[in-house]
Amino acid sequence: MSSSPRAWFGFGKAKGVPVPASAAEETSDSFMDEKASENGNGNGNGTVAESMPSDAFPVTAEQLSELSNERTRGGLADLLEQALKGDLAGKSDVEAPLQSHIEIRALIDRMRATPDVPPAEHSPEALQLQEDGEAAANALTSFALRSSPETGLDPHPQNIQRRKELFGSNVVAAKKLDSFLKLCWEAVQDFVLIMLLVLGIISIAVETTIGLDPGESCGTCWIEGCAILTSVLIVVLVTASIDYVKQFAFVRLTNTLDETNTKSVIRAGAQINVVDADIVVGDVLSVNSHSLASIPADCVLLGPSAGHALKMDESTLTGESKLISKMPGDVILSGTSAVQGAGKMVVVAVGINSLAGKITARVYESEDHEGDELEGDEESPLFTKLTLIAKQIGIAGTMAAIVAFVASCIIGLPGEPRADLVDNLINYFITAITVLAVAVPEGLPLAVTLALAFSSNQMMKEQNLVKHLDACETMGCATTICTDKTGTLTANRMTARALYIAKNNCICSHPSVMLGDMVLKELTGGTEILEILVNLISINTMNETVLYFDDITQPSMITGSSGNPTEVALLHLVQELNFHYSDIRNKTRGRTDQGELADFLAEGKQIGFSSARKMMSWAVPKEGGGYRLYSKGAAEVILARCSEELSLSGTEPLVDESRKNIENVVETYARKGMRNLILAYRDLPADFDFEAKSTTVNNSDGTPALLSETDLVFTALVGIEDPLRPEVPDAIRKCYEAGIDVRLVTGDSPNTAVSIAYQAGILKPFHFKNNGINPDNPDEELEMVASNLKNNVLMEGKNFRAKVYHVNEDGGKEFDQTAFDKIWPYLRVLARSSPDDKLTLAHGLNQSALYMDKAECKRLKANDRITIFPDRQVIAMTGDGTNDAPALKRADIGFAMGIAGTQIAKDAADIILLDDNFASIVTAAKWGRNVYASIQKFLQFQLTVNISAVVTALVGAFAYQKSPLAAIQLLWVNLLMDSLASLALASEPPVDELLQKPPVNRSEHMITRRMWANMIGQASYQITVIMVLLFHGPEMFGLTPGHIVEKEEDKNSVHYTIIFNVFVWMQLFNEVNCRNLKGEFRVFKGIHKNPLFVGILLVTSVLQVIMVEFGSVAMHVAEGGLDGKYWAISLGFGAGSLPVQQIINIIYKYAVHYKTWRKNKRLHKYGHETTRLVQSNESSGRDAAHPH
């Protein structure tokens, strides 16, 4: 007979006379027979009562959902009461209750009698409370949810589907997408479009009524107004279509993210991964803080892993940062996070019935009612600059429109008949509003959206899943990347390559050599030691770390693995030593949940890994009584706690000489870039208190160590190699050329971190003393180890914290920005760091105003060759753990690992690296800079058109009281700019040259001097051509002096049609020029790599031909279009934009050289040091990135 809760029908033991396990099994069988009978599937004649839920579930989704509101043991007791009533519904009073009903009734009564005040820890009352909680959770699972705490659900599709129908699916209806009509309505709210709509209507009304002469028929007088309305309609439809498509793009992005959210569930006794949406009520989740951080549904804890308390972060719901310890029977809320411990929990509410689902639904409902979306973060640098530019252009456009209207009125109205007064005023007003419409950069939002959307889609193909669009362009401004080592710089293929055991040092010198073979060869007569080693590894590794085999009978045939990579490497070593880790686990009492020993699992004591302890332990019962505790962890931590060592002759004291030898081996392994782990054990008496704390040994964070994890027996030192990714050194080099600093933040030892950083290129010879040269022998390099680095280039986490935090008057720790600013310019590697160090680093770099201290920047440049970026640092941070989430959120751009990252890290990040590769971060930087460059290209194009169109309209207003370009023609040009040009220029792929210059200064104006030169030069050419055609075109080309084609009698006038055609073709050819921002002479370079640009250019050209040839009076062009001669003139002037750009480039180049020459000459004349010429972008980028 067993007293374990597992022995009593899966619920727990009741007070009073215990029921034997055999009786429980009998009861279970009779219970299931009765349920089958009630469903008509058994041999009995029972029927389901009308009040009984379908499929014999004694609870409803609504009752289960209430548990998340109650969240108390009383609430769980009430739910069991409802389940009991539901199960008994319809039964006659004379029927004897099942044994399970009796047990549940006793359990409910006992739970309700439990006081609300928590009992003292380890008291009999506390133990009873925990036992009752486990029994209640098991009863809820088996009795109410028809599942199994051990084997989970039956995975049959009908069972899963039925549960979804009864209890709901684990999805919350997405926020309702805006309809196309709503988006059209939002688009038409633009002030300029409203004005054009009003003027279009007025134009139709006036032209068809008072605008007609007596006896004159309307004919085509309505065309002007209708054309304006049509243009407005096109703009609205294009804008709404873009927004409509953008909505679906975000839906696809969300769906892609959801597909990465998988959880580990137990079905039919097997542990499998399913996406959140496939989790159903009754599923049993296997939880640990590494593989399952974010809880996907409301659950009840069945029990933590043996000796491993589960702690939850509920701050997302309660706002309290304190971690909450959970006992069996406690409610685990959806949206909260498991940050410590492991265990199993049963799902009780999903989707809309879960607490997180209810909150989400209320938020969406509130948004629908209010019509407002939640406020986002503050504007990014790009949007801040664009807002300023749009405001400045808007003001200039408004002034130009006012000038055009006033000038037209002053010059045109005095000589006009009174009957034409209203008509002329309307025409003048339409011209003024059209000038404003062309001047205002309405295409900017569209261009930004297209550039960001295009970049995010392309980045997805290059292993960057962008969650927030503005993260694209923010990454383009990044000045510092703080990166992890494992899996990011390295391949995350951990392999045990060295072992120090029983004073034998085995190091694999060649990749083809297996460590296990070396150990078996060297360690002759050490069978007992090897057994201790393999037991230590097999028992003290997480359940989620597993190896997969083609044939379980052939342990050497490993086909794959999952779980913690370091533990995978250790399990591989076990297999190489001709042992099988799962066999060891399954025959160890207190470690296995399989077979006859499963009932004794609770006798094991797991002490999970924590960053404070830097170790993990697992104690199991020992033959003959007591416990054996196995530990593994950071080499320096475990070694400091060892008092004995294991040798071929048994255990012996760990004397200073042996300790020094082990430390030397640790250094040797670290210099080879290996991660060092020490494995140790300790035997403990049966009555040992595992909660007892040491009075002499502290953890790395200063808290007292567990007494059980002291006085250990040193067993082995393992060197684990994780090779550097081959593409990383080149990626680091590109970062430095791009002016992006790279800092390594790792939990590894200093020498391991230095080895990897040097291989990767983060550390250079000049970071070492004497520039890496051995002062005793100039022909030799210094050994690249931590002790040879210059001051503050490398720091350990504890020293870093000690320097940047000081104790304030209240006795608390306070961040010292001044102290931080003295460290960070030198810092390249932060070893033995904690997640909090990442947060400190991100905060300190963000807040640093060192760039404003010109004297200090000058000193750093002169003495240490360190160039401080002349603006606030923009930080990119990588992370994979749950504890990294605050740092990822604090950084400007957070990168989470898509493979090794926890769900909480992914939720906190802006971009997810799908391949966990540092090179993908460099790709993100290139695409981010490309977004900025694409917007600059569009600005260069649009503002050139704006200047030309506004000046042309103003000249026309003064000379003829009407623009040479009709309102509909200017609107066509505007549409051309806003839609097609923005799409064409936004689709330009990034070039490597983007990473050969420093990041863009946040305070730097978006329109550079070079852009101004290009815009003014091209606008001057265009204005000159238009003015020549306007005033001298008739005599130059034999034209009849004309005017805009407005009426039937004007239909043969080609003068202004040529002006319109030339104007558009100059824009189209200049669009090719605008692909370049730096005055490149090869304007067609790379154009074949962007077929979309070529396609749009061709489409736009065809549309222009159609407009001119068939637009007639509607487009204010000559009927029948233009003949070949005039097309040649139009194309000739348009193509002239290309050589004009070459002239602009030459003039600008020599102007810059002349200015530099004059400056140097002036400085030399007054005795100052001669200033060297401006460095190349590449050199400048490297200088900004790191000290030379």
From TrEMBL:
* Boundaries of every P-type ATPase A domain copy: 262-362
Protein keywords: ATP-binding, Calcium, Calcium transport, Ion transport, Magnesium, Membrane, Metal-binding, Nucleotide-binding, Translocase, Transmembrane, Transmembrane helix, Transport
Annotated Cation-transporting P-type ATPase N-terminal domain residues: 145-203
Instruction: Please give the GO cellular component terms listed in this UniProt entry.
Output: endomembrane system; plasma membrane
- The signal peptide annotation in the UniProt record is none
**Location within or outside the cell:** Endomembrane system
Q: Does the keyword Repressor apply?
A: no
Q: What is its main location?
A: membrane
Query: Has UniProt tagged this entry with the keyword Transmembrane?
Result: yes
What name goes with this protein? P-type Ca(2+) transporter
Classification lineage: Eukaryota, Sar, Stramenopiles, Ochrophyta, Bacillariophyta
